[in-house]
Design brief:
By secondary structure, the protein is of the alpha/beta class. It has twelve helices and twelve strands. It has one domain: TIM Barrel, CATH 3.20.20.70. The chain is 37% helix and 29% strand. Strands 1-4-5-6-7-10-11-12 form an eight-stranded parallel β-barrel, surrounded by seven helices.
Length: 244
């Protein structure tokens, strides 16, 4: 299983939100590039970077920071405000390996299909949900679409993966929503990356045992309830050992 330390950027700083609420922000570093260097020094080979200002404004805001992080050599997965082909192409020009599409992808599945066919295996679908219903616009709006129903519309789309985030768990250190993740994994035709609530090595062990392809870890790393080196050792071990 792959681990993605999360770097959420707002106002040029590395922050974490609780349940996607911009008014519940904790600053964990003034320099996101230095944070990326820290995770790389502890063994990370990939990162999940979110431009929170971009998610709110509808277009990328922190491109210069992203470019500095990409130059470090890790595989970067970028989300936040990528809602047209020009901005997606720009992110790839920066050296980003995958882009995460959420708001417009949920609203316009045909557009998502077009983007995935233009960049096969480079587009990650971001499914953010509250009580099973998809949320958009940086989690401000909850739609009437169920996440699992939406996946059925996408058969044959050449996505790289699906990131499933349970908003009610995000930033709360309350454990992942394993029931929802199992439903998503049973429905999705692509690798599933878990996000939201992962707070202990045991959480990671259970996700690994359940066959989840990857997980994004945020607040738990910053507050020290998970040590990245230990988590990486766990998921890089043969599954037979990691499940003991």
């Amino acid at each position: 299983m792959f681990l993605y330390p999360a770097i959420d950027i707002r106002g040029g700083r590395c922050v974490r939100l609780r349940q996607g609420d911009y008014s519940q922000e904790t600053v964990f570093g003034e320099d996101p590039v230095a944070i990326a260097q820290r995770w790389q020094s502890e063994g990370a080979d990939r990162l999940h970077v979110v431009d929170l200002d971009g998610a709110r404004s509808g277009h990328p805001v922190h491109g210069e920071v992203v470019k500095q992080i990409v130059r470090m050599g890790m595989l970067v997965q970028l989300g936040g405000g990528l809602r047209n082909a020009d901005d997606i192409a720009k992110a790839f020009d920066w050296g980003v390996r995958w882009v995460v599409l959420g708001t417009r992808a949920v609203r316009e599945p045909d557009w998502l299909r077009d983007m995935a066919e233009r960049w096969p295996d480079r587009i990650v679908l971001g499914l953010d949900a509250r009580d099973g219903y998809l949320a958009t616009e940086g989690w401000f709006n909850v739609s009437q679409k169920r996440a699992v129903d939406f996946l059925h519309l996408l058969a044959g789309v050449p996505l790289a993966a699906v990131v499933y985030t349970d908003i009610s768990r995000d930033g709360m250190l309350s454990g992942p929503n394993e029931i929802a993740l199992a439903e998503i994994r049973a429905t999705a035709c692509w690798p599933v990356i878990a996000s939201g609530g992962i707070s202990t090595l045991e959480d990671i062990r259970r996700l690994h045992q359940a066959g989840i392809w990857g997980c994004i870890i945020g607040r738990a790393l910053y507050e020290g309830t998970i040590r990245l080196s230990e988590a990486l050792a766990l998921v890089r071990a043969p599954r037979s050992l990691a499940t003991r």
